[in-house]
């Protein structure tokens, strides 16, 4: 009998790694259908592989998209947007110390974290 947590059907990093990159990529594409926030997260991860300047470009594109939007957000949508942007900022800052100066240039000091430091 297998040890607890070691079952082949358990959802953990080791078992997912065993699926292989191609199968995981297919699953990610399926999971992202109709979920724009997840697509943006994956695009940011791909940009991360190319370096901080590509990450900054992706973030700049997102901020420009937000600036062009003329939609009004309800409280839930606003909170969701703020969480998404904060996750992207944290991911960027965590991955590369070079990102904070780039982030400051992108947001021009409008975000809370740039005003704080």
What does this structure look like?
The structure is a single chain. With 117 residues, the chain is an all-alpha fold. The chain has a domain of 81 residues. Helix content is 74%, strand content 0%. The chain contains seven helices and no strands. The longest helix has 21 residues. It is globular, with a radius of gyration of 18 Å. The N and C termini lie far apart (54 Å).
Q: Would you kindly provide a brief summary of this structure?
A:
The chain is an all-alpha fold. The protein has helices spanning 13-19, 21-32, 36-50, 52-68, 75-95, 99-107, 112-116.
Counting DSSP E segments of at least 2 residues, the number of strands comes to: 0
Report the end-to-end length measured between terminal Cα atoms.
54 Å
Give the overall pLDDT as a whole number.
79
Coarse shape: globular
What does the main sheet amount to? none
Taking Cα atoms only, what radius of gyration do you get, to the nearest Å?
18 Å
| Unreliable segments of 5+ consecutive residues | 1-5
The H/E string reads: HHHHHHH
Number of helices: 7
Our estimate of the beta-strand percent is under 5%
Helix content: over 70%
Structural class: mainly alpha
């Amino acid at each position: 009998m297998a040890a607890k947590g070691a079952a082949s059907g358990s959802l953990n990093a080791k078992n997912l790694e065993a699926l292989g990159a191609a199968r995981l990529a297919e699953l990610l594409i399926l999971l992202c259908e109709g979920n724009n926030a997840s697509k943006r997260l994956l695009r940011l991860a791909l940009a991360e592989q190319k370096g901080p300047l590509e990450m900054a470009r992706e973030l700049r594109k997102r901020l420009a998209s937000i600036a062009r939007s003329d939609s009004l957000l309800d409280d839930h949508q606003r909170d969701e947007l703020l969480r998404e942007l904060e996750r992207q900022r944290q991911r960027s800052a965590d991955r590369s110390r070079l990102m904070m100066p780039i982030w400051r240039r992108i947001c021009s000091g409008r975000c809370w974290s740039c005003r704080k430091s």
